[in-house]
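Journal club prep — side note

Before the paper discussion, L.F. wants everyone to see what a predicted structure for a comparable chain looks like in token form. Sequence:
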Amino acid sequence: QVQLVESGGGLVQAGGSLRLSCAASGRSFSSAAMGWFRQAPGKEREFVAAITWSGSSLYYADSVKGRFTISRDNAKNTVYLQMNTLKPEDTAVYYCAADSVIYTMVAAYAYWGQGTQVTVSS
């Protein structure tokens, strides 16, 4: 059974940092793209960042470019999202997703985690 488990969310003040982790189990995703998405209350789930299987190509939403960094460790079957200079508008549930060929599209991902809450206070 494939599982993606996110961790690292929490409450942080504006300007602070958090590092999210997503650990995969049940199969290896070393040959698959992985991504991070987020969903704020009353809003649709949106793309945040994605990384190809090798880590050679990275993709970011304009709203997080320059502040967030996605990375992966294929030996640990884990993907990370380093979030710096956090803003109140970054508040959302953050989801990890795996296995897609269209990196920015929600519907293109085959596997999803349960999400981790990130709350940024002003």
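L.F.'s comment for the group: DSSP finds no helices and eleven strands in the chain. Keep this in mind when we get to the figures.
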